[in-house]
Amino acid sequence: MTTWTFGAVGDVFIDRPNPERAFTASSLLLRQLDLVFGNCEGAYTDNPLYPPSVGWRVVAPYANGADLQKAGFHVMAVANNHCVDGGHVGLLDTLRQLRGQGIQTVGAGANLQEALAPVTFERKGAKIGFIGFASVYPSGYEARAERPGLAPMRVHYWINTAYGLESGVPPHIRSNVYPEDVDLMKSNIEDLRKQVDIVVVSHHWGQYRSAYLTEYERSLARVAIDCGADIVLGHHHHFLRGIEVYKEKPIFYGLGHFVFDLTGAECVQGGYLRQELGEDCIFPRPGYPLSPFPEDTRMTMVAACDFDGRMLSSVGFFPCLIDEKNYANPLKLGDPRAERIVDYMSTITFRADLKTNYGPITERLGFAYARVL
């Protein structure tokens, strides 16, 4: 039998008194999958050195990351806007924690060469390679030749109107990735393509806005597939994003967050963030002490890509709902909340002008499952 399943979730960070229980609701599903990806969104260290550009410090004790392999993870991206929140020592401690469990990491390292380096796996006769990048991060988080950090994919923003910067004309924000960074990504994907059968590219990108895709996310995802990627995984937004099938390859524009503990939300109860984002802002939510995010972010997924050996055979996702304990709960067939999540995915996919449809919910591995059509 050569069939196997790749699974992926979004942001993961454990900062609670009982970290070993963080995946109580979801590990049964994750451990049934053959290869599982997540985005490690923070630093695990007992000796944080906060960089001057750090914003919200997403840092937890080193031991809090000790059970991620037991939860079912095999590979994690560490290229994101919180990976250096504990300083270079915090990043290196995080990498040591993950790798010590046998979890391979992409997108960050002790230097730029290590941050850009791919990792590979073998499953049922197929060789799978991963690389990772980040386009959203504070200044100084990027790796250099002899400095730890993440693999950057820099983005240039500018304001454009139909007739230039003209009074009274509504502006339109344009965004493009630096051409030299695109060329580097293309070269890395093409090189990896020669070594493996399946290429997975992880991107930390976009904006914290519900159901919104930036211009550069769309273009970067398609360029990745054009030069050899088979699966593109996006994260950062905390909200789910639509799924696109481009040249018969899936692009998950936003996996949401999965088990992501965030404390200290009282610091943004007011101010410009609340005025700018309204109810989408991050502030304390009654009954959800570890999740100060809006209600829509409690809808999440485990993305699933099925393979017959080296060939992609189907794409779908398991709808999940985050509860008051900040557990991600894969839902059962017949649960109306699963239908709600699939409906939500249909809505945001349509709003993003993506052409994907989602099939009727079926049962798979004991949970509700929606196939991408």
From TrEMBL:
Superkingdom of source: Bacteria
Entry protein name: Capsule synthesis protein CapA domain-containing protein
Matches recorded under PANTHER family: PGA BIOSYNTHESIS PROTEIN CAPA (PTHR33393:SF13), POLYGLUTAMINE SYNTHESIS ACCESSORY PROTEIN RV0574C-RELATED (PTHR33393)
Protein family per UniProt: Belongs to the CapA family.
Capsule synthesis protein CapA domain mapped to chain residues: 5-262
InterPro entries, per database record: Capsule_synth_CapA, CW_Biosynth-Accessory, Metallo-depent_PP-like
Source organism of this protein record: Bradyrhizobium manausense
